[in-house]
Amino acid sequence: MWKQHIVGAVIATFIIAAAISFNPYSASGSEEYNWGFKRAKNGEQAEAGAQLDQVVEKYGAIYKGKPDKKVAYLSFDNGYENGFTESILDTLKKENAPATFFLTGHYIESAPDLVKRMVKDGHTIGNHSYGHPNMARLTPDGMRTEWKKLDDKLRELTGIERTTYARPPEGTFNAKLLEVGNAAGYRHIFWSVAFKDWERDIRRGADYAYNALMEQLHPGAVILMHTVAQDNAEALPRFIAEAKKQGYTFLSLDDLVLEYEDFPLALQSSTP
Questions:
Q1: β-pairing, 187-188 with 249-251?
Q2: Where is the NodB homology domain (predicted)?
Q3: What is the dihedral of CA 81, 124, 226, 133, to 10 degrees?
Q4: What CA–CA distance (Å, rounded) separates 272 from 230?
Q5: Which positions are catalytic?
């Protein structure tokens, strides 16, 4: 996956430069939102609704790809390790499916070998904040501190200079968070496929996770899963295989951003 690292580095530079100048607006932006959407059904895209669509579009955040391509984007939120991430990484490697892992500071500190493997396997690391607070209730300095502390820990462990994709804990955000993130070089990535999978000790079975994923799968899907769920680890191989059978391709968030930004085709074609 060496090409992904090269293309990812170029895209990271592009995002940092573009995000700093992206937002021409300025407002108090204090109204708090909880990310949510009308779930996809029968292959139709999920819809966040007019209010949330307006906010994310204004600040360049993304939650789904274009509706005319059978492409899906895997992402995982990692607050703490529960013993199932290695299995997930094994599946992704076997299926040659890229993913983005949105990490907290606790995860980097408590599971360093898994973080190193994510990077070695060619996956992207996203910023889920250092301490998993309600980011919308922080001052701008507090927001920047959360992102930077995570980046500093990641750099110490892996040598990666910084993250460029951010995701607010529990999907709680406001316009100010997106604005401050843009100025600091972070592109906020939400999601269009999700289900209740974050309860550490509750098992619903692999079929539960598989069916939830398949029922919501749609062109341009940005899929959120939590690595603490054994159900997800067990369902992932079958889900990826069935999605591919239906004609879906799994690409990275770098590819998603390329799609939105009309990045040079020469670079797009170099992504495996």
A1: unpaired
A2: 70-251
A3: 80
A4: 29
A5: 77, 226
Q: How does residue 202 score in pLDDT terms, banded at 50, 70 and 90?
A: confident
Distance in angstroms (rounded) separating the CA atoms of residues 118 and 4 = 13
CB 88 within 8 A of CB 233: yes
> For residue 256, is it left (φ>0), alpha (ψ between -120 and 50) or beta?
alpha
- pLDDT in the model for residue 245: 98
Token code pair at residue 248 = 């879906």
Cβ-in-10-Å burial (0-12, 13-18, 19+) of 11 comes to buried
- Residue of 41, 14, 19 lying closest to 184 (CA atoms): 19
- Model confidence pLDDT, tens digit, residues 54-88: 999 999 999 999 999 999 999 999 999 999 999 99
- The conformational region for residue 93 under phi > 0 = left, psi -120 to 50 = alpha, else beta, is alpha
Residue 103 CB coordination number (10 Å): 27
Instruction: Output the average pLDDT for the chain.
Output: 90
Please give the structure tokens belonging to residue 49. 């609704």
Cβ neighbours for 208, distance < 8 A, ≥ 6 positions apart: 231, 235
**Of 166, 169, 167, 231, which is closest to residue 196 (Cα–Cα)?**
231
Predicted TM-score (pTM) of this structure: 0.90
Distance CA 85, CA 229 (A): 9
Longest C-alpha distance within the chain, in Å?
47
Half-sphere exposure of 149 (CA within 13 A, CB side): 16
